[in-house]
Specification:
With about 70 residues, the chain is mainly alpha-helical. Helices cover about 45% and strands about 10% of the residues. It has 1 helix and 2 strands; from the N terminus they run E-E-H. The chain has a two-stranded antiparallel ribbon. Strand 1 and strand 2 form a beta hairpin. The longest helix has about 30 residues.
């Protein structure tokens, strides 16, 4: 909300790394029709499923892991 079109943000950090944002345009808020929102909804579902599978796999691997001293 602080940027105007054409401006670039200061660097900031998130859990994904460092970022800069350049605002190119502003559009008035509006409700999306389902067909407009569908690709974003599908992407969110796929990402949730991928995260769930990765977490289950990590849990399975942790179940197999055992500490064995090398001496």
């Amino acid at each position: 909300e602080k940027l105007r079109p054409g401006e670039t943000s200061e660097p900031f950090r998130s859990h994904l790394g460092f970022h800069l944002i350049r605002l190119t345009d502003r559009k008035a808020p509006h409700l999306l029709e389902f067909q407009e929102a569908r690709p974003e909804i599908l992407l969110a579902i796929v990402n949730q499923r991928r995260a769930s599978i990765a977490n289950r796999f990590a849990d399975d691997l942790a179940g197999f892991a055992q500490f064995r001293p090398s001496f």
